[in-house]
Automatic annotation (TrEMBL):
Complex and partners: Interacts with NDUFS2.
Subcellular location: Mitochondrion
Listed EC numbers: 2.1.1.320
Gene of this entry: NDUFAF7
Official protein name in the record: Protein arginine methyltransferase NDUFAF7
Lineage: Eukaryota, Metazoa, Chordata, Craniata, Vertebrata
Length: 413
């Protein structure tokens, strides 16, 4: 708590958004809302061509194409965050969120013996806002970190968003190095002089003592959906509607499909979503942390293996039918934290998930908010304070994975 108080005293926080934006966890949809936009998008034409050539596609393939197709993907072509976009996230609401995470990373670094160097690795950094807030805390606590060699590594598939991240974090004071075909497709130096690199894949990030951060990243990874039937599990597929040639519809696979292997043998739900990509990433994180140390914090909308149909779309802060106008709306499915824990088991310790409210309260957000309100009472309207508090009520949870090595505490305030 004393760490937090020192940082809080040194800063004024300003709420970033004062509009009643839609949080991605706020609503639940089975994708059956009335269609509002029937436009035949380039992505819909691409998918119809694909389905006509090879048959119905899995929901995972649909999500992958719609979100990250290198030419037309939703994430690849636009900035979807914030007031003018499709949804809002905690770091875009207030810098307090990132500042508290920054403190958490520093306290982990201290608790595990003040390694001579660490990498901060963010998966899916959006506009770079969260890393920017964390880096500001690192600068403010420069005296604590002064002998530590820090580097920043961003895993991002979107060319568009990586350019925004570069602007946020480096202000391009030193010209960026770009090499489109290389695993490190961009390199630079942050505003505070820290080396920063961009990758498309976690596998390409150098191994070494690292803190990993994934905020609203796992929920956009492709999920396979399964329905229990009298014949056993059948995968939900996406096909062309035979009644309307430029419309998609859900169908059930006529026989078993390979992704069924990801369903637990003792599964009791009648509908499940499984995310093999999340399993690959969490195993890579666990492997890295067990070999070279560090920790990972995964914050997302999620559940502990209890929810069923969570696949939903967002466009312009409205819930959006997932099959309508693909490529113009965000697609997301709640993260199954029980699966992530299972996939990391044995290699690392996993803590949580705990609610965002509990995590932030444990980190002292109440004190931080009180100080902000006190200091900014002349600048801050009621609604902005309300917005800063609103992320406390969000249904996001955090899962933390850490190495199993014994740690010691030698924090000297
Ligand atoms: N973490 C940010 C943004 C969340 S949106 C925030 O909380 O504000 C999801 C982010 O993940 C975007 O930056 C998107 O481009 C990125 N992304 C989506 N799929 C990805 C993938 N397969 N690999 C790397 N980044 C991905």
């Amino acid at each position: 708590m004393s760490v937090l108080a020192r940082v809080a005293a040194g800063r004024l926080a300003a709420a970033r958004a004062v509009i009643p934006c839609l949080w991605r966890g706020q609503y639940f949809s089975s994708g059956k809302e009335p269609a509002e936009d029937n436009s035949v998008t380039p992505m819909l034409r691409h998918l119809i061509y694909k389905i006509k050539s090879t048959g119905p596609i899995t929901v995972a393939e649909y999500m992958r194409e719609v979100l990250t197709n290198p030419a037309k993907g939703y994430y690849v072509t636009r900035d979807m965050l914030g007031e003018k976009g499709d949804f809002i996230t905690s770091p875009e609401i207030s810098q307090i969120f990132g500042e508290l995470l920054g403190i958490w990373f520093i306290s982990e670094w201290i608790a595990t013996g003040k390694n001579a160097a660490f990498q901060l690795v963010e998966l899916g950094p959006g506009r770079g806002t969260l890393s920017g807030d964390i880096l500001r805390v690192f600068s403010q606590l420069g005296s604590v970190l002064k002998n530590c060699d820090i580097s920043i590594h961003l895993v991002e598939v979107s060319q568009k968003l990586s350019e925004i991240q570069a602007l946020t974090l480096t202000e391009e004071k030193v010209p960026l190095e770009r090499e489109a075909g290389s695993p490190v497709y961009m390199k630079g130096v942050t505003k505070s002089g820290i080396p920063i690199s961009w990758y498309r894949d976690l596998q390409d990030v150098p191994k070494g003592y690292s803190f990993y951060l994934a905020h609203e990243f796992f929920d956009v990874l492709p999920v396979h959906k399964f329905q229990k039937t009298p014949q056993g599990w059948r995968e939900v597929l996406i096909d062309i509607d035979p009644q309307v040639s430029d419309k998609l519809r859900f169908v059930l696979a006529p026989c078993a499909t390979p992704a069924e292997a990801f369903i637990q043998k003792d599964e009791t739900r009648d509908h499940v979503e499984v995310c093999p990509d999340a399993g690959v990433i969490i195993q890579e994180l666990a492997q890295r942390i067990s070999l070279t140390g560090g920790a990972a914090l995964i914050a997302d909308y999620g559940h502990d293996g209890t929810k069923t149909d969570t696949f939903r779309g967002f466009c312009g802060h409205q819930l959006h039918d997932v099959l309508i106008a693909p490529g113009t709306a965000d697609l997301t499915a709640d993260v199954d934290f029980s699966y992530l824990r299972r996939m990391s088991q044995g290699k690392v310790a996993s803590l949580g998930p705990i609610s965002q409210q509990t995590f932030l309260r444990n980190m002292g957000i109440d004190v931080r908010l009180k100080m902000t309100i006190y200091r900014e009472q002349h600048l801050c309207s009621k609604i902005s304070v309300h917005n800063m508090k609103s992320f406390l009520n969000e249904v996001i949870s955090s899962l933390i994975i850490k190495d199993l090595l014994p740690c010691h505490l030698d924090w000297e305030p």
